[in-house]
Amino acid sequence: MLKRTAAIAVSSMALALPVGTAAPATAETSAAHDLYVYGHSWTTGYGMSDPSQAYPNLVAADRGETLHNRGYNGPMVHQVADYVLGDSAGTWRTGTAGDVLFQAVSNTARDLGVDSLALTTTRNALRAMVATVSASRRIEDSDHSHGYHGTWHTQRLSGASGGAMHVTTRNNSYVQFRAVGGEYLVLRGVSGTGITVRLGDRTAHHTVTRIRTGHRVHPSYGRSGIALLYRVPSRMAGHTIRLTKESGSGRFMFDARLPQKRHPDEVVLVKEPYLLDYSISTAHPNGDDHVMDVFNAVLDQVGAEFPHTVVVDPNSRGWDKQTMLFPHSTHPNEVGSRFLADLVDQALRSAQAG
User: Fold this and answer.
1) Is 328 exposed, middle or buried (0-12, 13-18, 19+ CB in 10 A)?
2) CA–CA distance, 97 with 99 (Å, rounded to integer)
3) 123 vs 207: CA distance, rounded Å
4) How far apart are CA 95 and CA 43, in angstroms?
5) Backbone angles phi, psi at 316, to 5 degrees
6) Do 308 and 347 contact (CB within 8 A), yes or no?
7) CB neighbours (10 Å) of residue 128?
8) 107 backbone dihedrals φ, ψ, rounded to 5°
9) What is the bridge-based pairing of β-strands 13-15 and 226-231?
10) Per-residue pLDDT, 191
11) What DSSP string describes 224-274?
């Protein structure tokens, strides 16, 4: 099924993850007929004698687009999110134009299985990816519009937006700013270390919500700080917002704000196709079709949040794991690659026509 999602008002906190690096505020302009790809080895053509037959290459060729393939072999979903958000060669630069494709969930699903923290991590990693490529600009933690009160210090982190973030361990320390409205706040959380952040609307004189950063990060994903996104309601545009570390012994990490474009380019989320034998992989030997279904459902949840996102489901459109994978492999052959390319091309044509 090709699913064009609808917008939903979001006012809850979620997480992404860091392992890439952060994005400078400088803008980079490109043509709207570019295709940017982030993901795991299926996007790189791993196992093919001719990597140009990888399905993203076929999509770009079919559509006459310039391909910028930033996929690489073996990443977990939070690592792809960090690569998009972080400060590296593959970082997404605001001002870039073009369609974006993500396929990044399989390795996480096959490593961790159906686990609530693994699913939460996946959902928020995907949210971080889409929010980053859909941002009109980045307002870094160091921006002059942010007023810090209490005890804060700057901490370098490769996965943080801009390469660094503001950190405090002192309760009642806060950061204050005037909201754009509808922007995503990028905070960070650490596995097992919970704090409570109070988001207050100083203009309306009330507490909007309390953001609890603990118990939202899978322990396998390290302790350096995984991105947690909260979307400021659009009705709060122009209001003075205060984020206060209310309680907890951990760190309050404030990374960036991501105002969203009015008319962002299309984003494609590709669900993970079923495999014939999940145990063949020595790196990611677990999983089954049910695990894939559960993780693929997370893409629908994320897609529903962003109206410009298209979710592509190969399994419901005729994916055949008997004939579309290399023998004794967990990667698509030329037939499978062609099949995926056609689905993505159809999805983009349908979305851009509508």
Assistant:
1) exposed
2) 7
3) 26
4) 24
5) -90, 0
6) no
7) 31
8) -65, -40
9) antiparallel
10) 72
11) S-EEEEEEPPGGGTT-EEEEEEEE-SS-EEEEEEEPBPSSPPPEEEEPPPP
Amino acid in the structure at residue 32: A
Place of tokens 């991501």: 258
Residue 21 · residue 159 · CB < 8 Å: yes
What one-character DSSP code corresponds to residue 221?
A: G
Label residues 42-65 b or e (16+ Cβ within 10 Å = b). Answer: bbbbbbbeeeebbbbbbbbeebeb
**What DSSP element (H or E) covers 154?**
strand 153-156
**Is this structure's pTM higher than 0.90?**
no
Token pair 């400060």: residue? 87
Predicted local distance difference test score (pLDDT) of residue 5: 40
Which residues share a beta bridge with 210? 198
Report pLDDT for 222. Answer: 58
List, run by run, the mean pLDDT of 10-residue segments along the chain (354 residues): 38 32 38 88 96 96 96 93 89 94 97 91 92 97 98 92 94 98 92 86 97 78 76 97 94 96 95 96 91 98 96 98 96 98 96 82
Contacts 24+ apart (CB under 8 A), 295-300: 295/105, 295/108, 295/109, 295/119, 295/122, 296/105, 296/271, 296/272, 298/105, 298/119, 298/122, 298/123, 298/126, 299/105, 299/126, 299/269, 299/271, 300/3, 300/5
Structural tokens at position 126: 């995907």
Query: What does residue 3 show for φ and ψ, rounded to 5 degrees?
Result: -120, 115
Identify the CA nearest to 23 among candidates 214, 146, 200, 162. Answer: 162
Contact 44, 107 (CB under 8 A): no
Rounded to whole angstroms, the Cα distance separating 225 from 136 reads: 24
Read off the amino acid at residue 291: V
